[in-house]
Each structure stands twice: as structure tokens, then as C-alpha cells.
Amino acid sequence: MKNFQKKREIKDYLQSKVFLVFLTIILLLFIWNIIGVIGKLRETSKNRKIAEDKITELTKEKERLNTDIQKLSTEKGVEENIRDKFGLAKQGEGVIIIVDDKNSPANNTENKSTGFLSFFKNLFK
Questions:
Q1: Per the domain annotation, does 107 fall within a domain?
Q2: Which of 25, 46, 77, 82 could, after both became Cys, cross-link 71 (CB 3.0–4.6 A)?
Q3: Is the pTM of this model over 0.85?
Q4: Which domain holds residue 25?
Q5: 10-residue mean pLDDT series, the chain (125 residues)
């Protein structure tokens, strides 16, 4: 009988309001921690995506630089690089420099107004 009463005391204690409140608080803490872990997991996956994108970008840059190095190892590549950087030409060749005209028709149309009176003014000029 004593054994039965001891089991009943434990059962009563586990079903008491104080114990249930304690369990609820512990459950809420676990849920709060799980939500925090999920947030950190999302942030980590975003950071991983950014890192992977940067790795692919750096890989492409490395390939481009390797091709530039290979190009500069030849005589023709060095000559082409010097021509591009300094605007030089071989002997007997000419260099064409294109200069924008400051008095181009696009700039002149800004000053002209369109309308009935301007039509007559332009007609008698």
C-alpha cells in the first residue's frame, strides 16, 4: 500500500499546476532557441551563397589574368598592349584621333525653339 501511495504522490506532483507551468516555461525556451537556430541557419546560407558567388567571380578573374599573362609572354601580345595603353603606332602607320565637335547640330537644336512665331522668324532669315 505504501508503494501505491508513493506512486500517487509522484503522479499528483507531476500533475500539479506549478510543475506544468515549469514545463511550459522550459518548452517555450526550447522553442525560442530553435527559432534562433533557424534564423542563424538562414543567415549562414545567405553568407554561403555570397561566398560561392565571390569564388566564381574570382575564378573568372584568375582565368582572365592567366590569359593576359599568356598573351603578354608573346611579342605580339606585348606590342598590342603597348599600342592600347599609349596610343602608339608602327612606323608608316597613322593614328586617328576622334574629337567631338562642340558645335554639333545636336547642341544647336537646344537653342532653337519650335512654335508658330519661330517658324516665321526662321523663314525670313
A1: no
A2: 77
A3: no
A4: 2-89
A5: 68 85 96 97 97 97 95 90 81 77 61 67 72
